[in-house]
Amino acid sequence: MENYGTLTFDKKAMARNLSKAVCRKLIAVIENNERLDAEIADEVAHGMKEWALDQGVTHFCHWFQPMRGVTAEKHDAFLSFDDQGLPIARFSGRQLIQGEPDASSFPSGGTRSTFEARGYTAWDPTSAAFIFKTKKASTLVVPSVFLSWTGNVLDMKMPLLRALNTVEDRAFKLLKLFGNRSAKFVRMTVGAEQEYFLVSKDFYEARPDLMITGRTLFGKSSAKDQQMEDHYFGAIKPKVLDFMADVDAALFERGIPAKTRHNEVAPNQFEIAPLFEEANIAVDHNLQAMEIMRKIADDHGFALLLHEKPFAGINGSGKHLNWSLMDSEGNNLLEPGAAPKRNIQFLTFVGAILAGVDKFGALLRSSVADAGNDYRLGANEAPPAIMSLYLGDYLANLFNELEKGTSISKSVREEIDHGLKRLPTVLADNSDRNRTSPIAFTGNKFEFRAVGASQSTSEPAAVTALILAYGIDTVLEKIDKAKGEDITAKAVEAVKQIAKETGRVRFEGNGYSSDWQKEAAKRKLPNLRNTPEALEVLTSEEVVALYKRYGILTEEELHAKQEIRLEAYIKTKVIELTLLKEMSLTGVIPAMLRHTSTVGDAVEALGAASKTLKGRLKSYGGIVDDLYAGVDRVTAVLTRLEKEGGTLKQAHFLAGQGVETALALRAACDRAETVVEEGEWPFPNYREMLFLL
């Protein structure tokens, strides 16, 4: 633990490298949301530089999150020259506060032309600077936002910061309404559970589809995969545990509080989970963690797979976004306490998220929409694309009773009788857990389970904060309109109204079932099955009004966001189709032809005694025909795509005919793999990738 945070410019580093006055001012900015005084920037920059130089750092960079889903950085040396022309290390306050990367090649969704290159990065002091080290290089990394010369948002962090400010202000207002006079602020907290696969680097490099797209575009199922359910929480392989230990050590140096590690359901699938942190910091830490894990996996001879569905037929990988609200005194505002029915403050916050999801569930669905997650959502391993809330038996009954206006029943935690006196008593919670629900209350937090493993949590966290702010405002408006002076009675009346208005989004059953699909349709809940459908929501009248109301994004910026994400979807699909065609032509078909030729030679040698082989040979010819037909169909789809007008039409075309075409060619490839002898098959198979490390 002595190395925890040593590569982070945290409070301890600030205290050692800044004057007391500047340190107090900077901490006030970070903790109390006070305005940053530009006059302290030079001293902060100097202190950061001296701290970094002591650890061998030679360069600095502004680290930001453009709307392409990954982080970006441009490294500059501390090098400068003094009046005598001698080299010195310099890092000014201006360099700390603002950078200017070339913005021409970052996605802007049509808000600027490619020749308009100017863009600005601006320091986010609420997320600590850190040091990134390789074997030979060390860089001071400054978390930042990214804006265009015209002031348009070009990144994913700025909307998150704005949404967090919005929801935290409103949550604090609601807290004060209930008479809290000691809390100074409220913060949204997040803990993202990260799932991932590990495969041998040798296998990874022999699969062009894994290297380029992050997933296998074809592959026959292994005779054994996850059906024995023996991998989940099983003993961790020593070489994997060594990898995990190195990951934990690297995360601890960055001040990233990794807490839990375990085997997941599918073979060679694992999970790492952190402690809760303030949302902005948690998002940045997850982005850092993914990069750290990728690097350390490579050092161990593994490849880290973060795609939502790297292998067909087994579970994919998600990133459960657990979130709550915490006041300045450390009180969890989503802690129901021993008697939730009497904790009216708690019920109002639950009512707020119910109101937000009821009104803007489709927007929440859009926040996790991309090509990778389309393979996972609704696949009986992840929640469906229908946004509903699971509250658990006790809270669900409580809200049902509030909706009906009946008396509230009592509930106590019961002991589980395990029949063994020597073992400690086990207390049952008020409710079970529902892994089929996209949004579940899990005791003292909500869990948004639809986030994909490869995705940044910036977007889903920002949307969650935004719709929660809307929900809190809805609660406040109802309290204000309620009759009487007693705030508790008025809050109860507000929660009752919300219970009546949001019944359609409360669902305690099996989200995987076809019955729920039918029931959700009756309730008029959106079921946005793919990315193009989900992204259409971004420019709807209601969503534009919501973002404008809270000053998160303009209508122009929302249209740009939609365009960027549609373009990313289209490019991903085109890459997958193109690569599937190439691998079929250069790998699968030649292997199948060689096998067919070998069988043909055997038929000729055996003559009349080869009835069975003749039948097989005919079926192999059918596979070859299907492979070539599939390749031709891919070519036709890619050709027709160019004639489809506009990104939305192209995206819908690829989500329909593009997906169907890829599945048909995949099926032919998988049939070929079942008959070609293993030594002749040109790619590592599922059995090797899932069971050999």
Kindly describe this structure.
The protein is an alpha+beta fold. It has three domains: 11-152, Ubiquitin-like (UB roll) (Roll), CATH 3.10.20; 163-217 and 227-553, Glutamine synthetase/guanido kinase, catalytic domain (Creatine Kinase, Chain A, domain 2); 568-691, Four Helix Bundle (Hemerythrin (Met), subunit A), CATH 1.20.120. Helix content is 47%, strand content 14%. The chain has 21 helices and 19 strands. It has helices at 11-17, 20-32, 41-53, 93-97, 157-177, 201-205, 208-213, 238-253, 279-299, 344-366, 371-374, 393-404, 458-481, 487-501, 514-522, 531-535, 541-549, 555-606, 611-641, 647-675, 686-691, and strands at residues 59-64, 72-77, 79-81, 87-89, 98-99, 119-123, 130-133, 138-148, 186-200, 258-263, 269-274, 277-278, 302-305, 319-327, 389-390, 415-416, 426-427, 439-441, 446-448. The chain starts with 10 loop residues before the first helix and ends with a helix. 46% of the residues are buried. The model has no long low-confidence stretch (mean pLDDT 92).
Shape: globular
Q: How many structural domains are formed by the residues?
A: 3
Q: Roughly what fraction of the amino acids lie in strands?
A: 5-15%
Largest sheet: 9 strands, mixed
Fraction of helical residues: 40-55%
CATH architecture of the largest domain: 2-Layer Sandwich
Instruction: Tell me which oligomeric state these chains represent.
Output: single chain
Q: Specify the CATH homologous superfamily of the largest domain.
A: Glutamine synthetase/guanido kinase, catalytic domain
Structural class: alpha+beta
Output the radius of gyration: 28 Å
